[in-house]
Amino acid sequence: MKKAKQNDSAAIVPTMSNWELTKRRIWRNKELYLIILPVLVYYILFHYKPMYGLIIAFQDYSPRRGIWGSDWVGLQNFKDFFGGIYFWRLLRNTLSISLVTLVVGFPAPIILALLVNELRSKLFSRITQTITYMPHFVSMVVLCAMIREFVAEDGFITQFLVKFFGYDGKNLLSRGAYFTPIYAISNIWQGVGWGSIVYLAALTGIDMELYEAARVDGAGRWKQTIHITIPSIAPTIIVMLIMRMGQIMSVGHEKIILLYNEGIYDKADVISTYVYRMGIVNRQYSFSAAVGMFNSVVNFILVIAANQISKKVSETSLW
Amino acid sequence: MARRVKNPNKIKRSRGEEIFNVFNIIFLSLLMLACLYPFWYVICASFSKSSLMMGHSGALFKPLGFSLAAYKKVFENRSIWIGYGNTIFYVVAGTALNIFMTVLGAYFLSRKNVPGRTPIMLMIMFTMYFSGGMIPGFLNIQSLGLYDNRLVLIVTGAISTFNLIIMRTAMASIDACMEESARLDGANHFTILFKIMLPLTKATVAVLVLYYGVAHWNSWFNAMIYLEDKMKEPLQLVLRQILIINDLSDMGMGEDSEMVSETIKHATIIVSTVPILALYPFLQKYFVKGMMVGAVKG
C-alpha cells in the first residue's frame, strides 16, 4: 500500500527520490507527530517498559541491585514453577473456572436476547432490559461483598439451599466445591443483561421481510427462530465465541481475590491470584514474573490462534 | 412446538405460541426478580434494627423494625467521605486525561498518508494482546517513583487501547472534505482536531467519558497495591476494608457498636452504590450505544 502511494507521487514529481518525498511528508505532518508524542510516551513507559522488565523472569532479581545488577539464572524460575507442587492445581483451577464460566455464561445472554426479542410488548421489553442491565453497574467490591453475605451461614442463599435441598448450612465459600459455581453464577447475574446488548443489536439488524416470507410459507414463531433468527445472528455468536476462546487461560484476579480464602485455595487459586500472592505479597519478584510471563505467552498464542480460526470460519478478525 | 398458522394472511398465533409467550413472560419476570432481589435485600437490611437482624437468617422481604442508626454511623464515618472525595478526584482527573490522550491518539491514527502510522498502530495494538504482566508493571511503577502517589491512579491506564480504536473509527468516518476545506483556510492540525473533529465526534466522546469514568469509579486493585497512605484511598478500597476485610474500626465503634454491627455493611453498600444506580437509567442509552460501537469491531 505504501509502495503504491509512493509510486503515485513519484509520477507527479518524477525528479524527487522516494526518501525526499517521505521527508517532505514527515515535515508537512510535523504537528501530527507532536500530537502522537504523548501517546507514544505513555505506551513506552507503561506498556513497553514493563515488557522489557520481563527479563527479571530470567534473573534472581533484587530491587536493590536492579535489572542490570541482578544475577542471571536462565530458566530456573520457570523450572521451579513447572516442577512446583502448585503448577497442576493452578492450571486445573484456571482452566476449570474459565471453562465452566464459558459454558454456562456464554449462552445465557444469547438466550436472553432471543427471549426479549420474542416479547410483543415494547414496554415490557424495555423494562426487562433496564432491570437486567442494572447489576452490571455494581462495582466488583460491592458485588463480592454481597455474594459473601448471601452465602454466609445465615445468608439467604445458604438458607434457601438448607430449606429446599437439605444443605447442612455451612458457609458456601468455606467449601472449595462451591467456589466455581458461585463464581460462574454471579458472573451471569452481573453480566447476562449487559452481554445481551450485542445480540439484541444483531437481532434488530435482521431483515423483516424474511419473517414475512416465512409466515406466508406457514412457518410458526418456533420455525422462524430456528431457520431465520439463529442463522442471522450466528456470525456474531461465532465471533464472540472464538474471541472468548482466546481468553480461556486468563482468569482475572480481582474477583477471586475478593472472594476466596486460604481454606479453599485448593479449588479457587488461579494463576493470576498466585502471581499476586507470590509477587506483590511475598515479594518473590522473579519467580512470579516468570509465572506471569508463562500465562501472558500462553494467552498471546491462544488469541492469535483464535483470530486465525475466526478469519477462516467467518472472515471476521481482529486484525 | 408451534403449530402452523391457520390463516397465513392474518397474524394469528397458534396455541403453542401463546403458551410460549406466557412462559416467556413468567421466566423473564423471574429473571428480573433475581436481578432486583439482592438490592432489595440490602435495602431492607440497611433499614432494619440491628438487634432484630442478629437473630435473623434467610430472606428478607421488608425491614425488620426500622432504624436509621446504621446510616447515621456511615455518614459519620470520615473514611467513607475521604474515599468519596478521592474517588471523585480520580474519576474527574483520570477521565479528563483519558479523553485527552485517547483523542490525540485517535486523531493521529485516523489520518491517512502519514509516514509511520502503520508501525505506530501495530505497536499500540500489540499491547492489547501481550503485556508484561502484574509484577513487571508493579516494579515499573516503583521505578518511576509513582508508588504511593495519587498520580498512579490517573496515569497508569491513561489510554485504553480498545477505546482508542473506537475513537479512531469514529474519527476516520468523518468526511475528509471538512478537513480539506479547513486546511485550505489555513487551519493547523490542532485547530482541526479541537474545532472540527471533537464537535463532530462528541457522541463517541460522551460514550468514552462514561466508559472511562465507570472504570475509575470501580477500580480498587491498583489503589490497593500502589497506595499506602489512607488519605489517598478511593472509595472502593475503603469499601473493601469495611465489607470484605470486615474492619469496622474506622466506624468509630464504641459502646453502641452492637447497635449497628449487623446493618452497617448494608448501609455502606447503599450509600456507595445508589449514586451510580440512580444515574444509570439516564445514561443507559449512551452505554448501549457504546456497546454497539464496540460491537462493530470485536
Descriptive overview:
The complex is a heterodimer of chains A (319) and B (298). Chain A is an all-alpha fold and 319 residues long. Chain A has helices at residues 2-12, 18-28, 30-52, 66-69, 76-83, 87-105, 107-118, 122-133, 140-150, 156-165, 179-204, 208-216, 221-245, 254-259, 265-268, 271-281, 285-314, and strands at 59-60, 71-72. Chain A has a domain at 96-314: MetI-like (MetI-like fold). In chain A, helix 7 crosses helix 11 and helix 8 (122-133) runs antiparallel to helix 11. Mean pLDDT of chain A is 89; it is low at 1-7. Chain B is mostly helical and 298 residues long. Chain B folds into two domains: 15-68, no CATH class; 78-251, Orthogonal Bundle (MetI-like fold). Chain B contains 15 helices and no strands. Chain B has helices spanning 15-47, 50-54, 69-76, 78-110, 117-129, 134-143, 152-155, 161-172, 176-184, 189-200, 202-218, 221-226, 235-244, 257-260, 264-296. The radius of gyration of chain B is 26 Å and the shape is globular. Mean pLDDT of chain B is 87; it is low at 1-10. Classes of the chains: A mainly alpha (319), B mainly alpha (298). Chains A and B meet through helix 2, helix 3, helix 7, helix 8 and helix 9 of A and helix 1, helix 4, helix 5, helix 6 and helix 10 of B.
Q: What's the layout of helices and strands?
A:
The complex is a heterodimer of chains A (319) and B (298).
Chain A: H1 2-12, H2 18-28, H3 30-52, E1 59-60, H4 66-69, E2 71-72, H5 76-83, H6 87-105, H7 107-118, H8 122-133, H9 140-150, H10 156-165, H11 179-204, H12 208-216, H13 221-245, H14 254-259, H15 265-268, H16 271-281, H17 285-314
Antiparallel strand pairs in A: 1-2
Helix pairs in contact in A: 5-17, 6-11, 7-11, 8-11, 11-13, 13-17, 16-17
Chain B: H1 15-47, H2 50-54, H3 69-76, H4 78-110, H5 117-129, H6 134-143, H7 152-155, H8 161-172, H9 176-184, H10 189-200, H11 202-218, H12 221-226, H13 235-244, H14 257-260, H15 264-296
Helix pairs in contact in B: 1-15, 3-15, 4-8, 4-11, 4-13, 8-11, 11-15, 13-15
